[in-house]
Write a structure and sequence with these properties.
about 120 residues, mainly alpha, 2 domains, 5 helices
């Protein structure tokens, strides 16, 4: 079993990992989670919310003894596993491919509309 003092440190490490992997800002896990809500699956988001709720209690020397450290350790492990599986370079590449795909579609749609108007007006 891990010491109760370690829970607060682990929550802070997870907030740092969220900043690194998801590119969100926020000094605490609660602030980082508020900015990264749509980037996390619902199950992982629920575990992270449990950790964020325990964050202020984990900093207090007497209140940290009231926390369920085993459940928080499981939630932290699950969140860490998910964040470790995220590849930031792959996310950036996917974002750029999405932008370029949308741009290509818009250009094709404009070209088709332009040809339709030119044909309708009798220029083609």
């Amino acid at each position: 079993m891990r010491p109760p003092e370690r829970t607060g440190e682990e929550i802070a490490e997870l907030a740092d990992l969220m900043r690194a992997r998801l590119g969100v800002r926020g000094r605490t896990l609660r602030a980082a989670l508020a900015r990264a809500r749509h980037r996390l699956p619902r199950r992982i988001r629920a575990r992270a919310a449990r950790l964020a709720a325990a964050e202020p209690l984990a900093r207090h020397p007497k209140l940290r003894l009231t926390l369920d450290h085993a459940a928080l350790a499981r939630a932290a492990a699950e969140l860490r596993d998910h964040l470790d599986s995220i590849d930031a370079a792959e996310r950036r590449k996917g974002w750029w491919l999405g932008v370029l795909g949308g741009l290509a579609f818009n250009m094709l749609a404009f070209l088709a509309l332009l040809l339709a108007v030119l044909r309708w007006r009798g220029f083609v």
